[in-house]
Amino acid sequence: MTELWDEGLQSERTRLAWVRTATMLAASGLGAGGMALRAGAHPLVAVPFAAAALCGALLLARTGVRYHRVQDALHGGRPLDERADAVLAWLGSLAAVTGSLVFVVLR
Question: What is the pTM of this model?
Answer without folding.
Answer: 0.83
